[in-house]
Amino acid sequence: MFLRTFAALAAALALASASLAQPAARSDLESRAPPDLQVWVTSSTDFCVILPRAKYSTIGDSEFPGGAKSYCTKRYDSSQGKVPAKFFTSGPFVSKARGKSGGRQVQLTGCINASASPRLQPNDGGGQYDSAPGGTDGKGNPAGSVCLGYNHYVQIVEPDANRICIRCCDNQSDCPLQFDTSGCKKIIPGRYDGC
Ligand SMILES: *[C@@H]1O[C@H](CO)[C@@H](O)[C@H](O)[C@H]1NC(C)=O
Ligand SMILES: *[C@@H]1O[C@H](CO)[C@@H](O)[C@H](O)[C@H]1NC(C)=O
What we know:
Keywords: Signal. The chain is α+β, with helices and mostly antiparallel strands. The chain contains two helices and twelve strands; from the N terminus they run αββββββββββββα.
């Protein structure tokens, strides 16, 4: 009886350490993504979003290889841009509640002043950035972009509606890619106070 319990415990421990080992292997892979293609959402003051690389671009016009990159509040590499001051007019709001699938996820939502970023056109209807298998070649948009600590991400920017949202997910079903014209409120429900 005791032996059997011990064997079960040992098996459970082996399983647990196997699943603990996985994120480490994944972050090795992630850290190989160039810094300007990495995003993360750690808190409402420590995060990155993808924006066009060129000035006064629409999201659509930035959807080519090299057309967009990460902009962070606490960048660690000079290839990453900075989130402009006064970009958010409400929020950003961060939630780490689990996804519908039960998988881990984190999301950041809020209202923006598109005019506060020299990367955006305020009258642009916006678009979507995402990790693989998004993008025209299935490598993500921008190609090779990743969200640190998670398997997938999806981000929408709606300059004309003053909204931005990003969600990083372990399960792809929590970061759907096929609703790219639906907007933040549909794809990433959350707090958008005032927009
Ligand atoms: C992801 O979520 C879907 C839908 O809830 C589920 O069927 C699938 O098994 C999940 N995949 C993983 C890898 O957990
Ligand atoms: C948006 O940003 C622009 C440029 O910095 C500024 O002139 C304008 O007052 C801001 N609008 C709002 C509503 O904050």
